[in-house]
Amino acid sequence: MTLDSTGTLALAAAILLAGRFLNAGIGVLARYNIPQPISGGLAFALVAAALHAWSGLVIETSSVLRGPLLLAFFASVGLSADLGRLRKGGPKLVLFLACVVPFLIAQNALGTGMAILLDQHPLIGLIGGSVTLVGGHGTGAAYARIFEETHSLAGVMGLAMASATIGLVLGGVVGGPVAQYLLRGRAPIAAGGHTATAEDRVEPATTEGAIVTTCLVLFCLLLGGWMASLTAGAPIALPDFLWCLFAGVIVRNLIAPAIRLPVSDASVDLVGSMALALFLAMTMATIRLWELAALAGPLMAIVGAQAAFAVIYAVLVVYRMMGRDYEAAVATAGFLGFSMGATATAIANMQAVAGRYGPAPVAFLVVPLTGAFFIDLANALVLTGALTLPVFGE
Question: Is the pLDDT at 201 greater than 60, yes or no?
Answer without folding.
Answer: no
